[in-house]
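Re: [help] complex structure
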Amino acid sequence: MEIPYTVTPRPDTGLANPKLGIWLFLASEVMLFGGLFSAYIFLRIGAEPGYWPHGLLNVPVGAMNTAILIASSVTVVLAWASLKMRKLSAYKLWMGISIICGAIFLIVKLAYEWPQKFEHFGAFIKKDALAKYEGYLGNDYIKEKNAKSGTAIESRVEISGHLHEVEMTYDPTVLEKIIADQHAALEKAQDRLKQLEASNTTKEFAAELSDVKKAIKETNERLANLPQLKLESFLNKHDLTAEPDAHDEKMLIAKGHHLTPGIAEHLEKLPGVKFHAFELGLDPINADPTNPESDKPHFLYKGPTEKPGRIEREDVDFYSAFAPKHSSYFAVYFTITGLHGLHVLAGVLIMIYFWLPIEGGTKMFRRNPEQLANRVEVVGLFWHFVDLVWIFVFPIFYLL
Amino acid sequence: MSDPHASSHPPATKDTHEVSAHGEHEHFDMHLGLYLGVGAFLLVATAVTVFLSYVDFGSQSRNVVIAMLVATVKVGFVGAIFMHLKGEKKTIWRPLFFTAFFVLGLFLLTLLHWYDPIATTVHAHH
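Output below.
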């Protein structure tokens, strides 16, 4: 189907159709991101002191990504202007740079920024246990400093860093009992099946018969899967070890290179496993909480230190990686930057399409250069919008 | 770019642009400097945003307001120059006014929380 007015303006609107179309689309996009930004405002205003984290993101990396997007906005306009001046090779160059910029942005996000978050451990301490961890939190120091010099440093409720070890006990009989129960249930169901099949009133019990068969099938499946819940198989699967503690024979120390917060959560759910404490390499703020340098987030991001910290499980309200479920902050951070990232991906794909020597791309230049210029103008408008959203995202998540 | 008389033209054939396109060369050359200039301004403004976030303006909310002002100026330049809103037709401006109206209304809705505050938050549920 030929779309009319792709090049010349439509008489009644005075605009070429694609341009009006993209602007109406962008208007709806403003509402979409507007909704998410108002969710951000709502969550942030509603957060209790200490529960809206600051300084967890890498500012130089975020600033670099901002610069990359701004640069690509310039090169997209230059690509469009090159087409207007009928310079195909200049167009290819500027468009190529724009595509590379978009790709770098995504790579930094997906291969560097996000994976780091998923390995970072954070534990919110129960309110009545906060005082016990004064050495990591420095809340007395903060109170004193706020009273003395009128600063407004927020109290701290979370201890974070790199998870090294988990102290735990393991009672294998819990799983053994579950397996025994399942075997008993299976036997009972099989007996009933035999009875039903032997009776002459099968029709009467047709519904029960199918129920029993279903129960046998499900119990068998469960029994096949249960061995995976053995501590040993879990440790093997995730390349972890659990050695008895030198000081306390009952205690096991689970550790390994792959002991991420997410794996720890799964480990804790195994039948018979009971966590007693986390051992971590503390983040700088918890390693040295009374250092005035920790009062405010740093420009240069400093990862977890080697200084060990120990948190007892019973004092932890909630622990997780820096994943969406960690806090309202990370939930709305991943939602907005994820949706923004999808927009970057879409923009890159469309720009590649217009850059390739195909009918919809540079081949169009010979046939109808103005139509190609209009296409590039439209993807350019989309791309500038994506840049514009990031101009707000960067300060609200990285800086404030 | 936009031709003020375009609306009075009959639906033209695909080739009409060829005639005018070459006359526009100078026009776009002139703009190249402007685009680069705005790009440079945006980069500097980004650095300014980062710098200002480490300056203590007395309260966190003041820092937020200042950062949002800088961001709004940046966005204004992106819209006016890169997206050609400066000198754009009314047909485009009109829906954008509606958008601005509704998105501001949406933000105002969040202020209603003062009348229905959140009693307990987030971390109580685990």
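Chain A has a mean pLDDT of 93.
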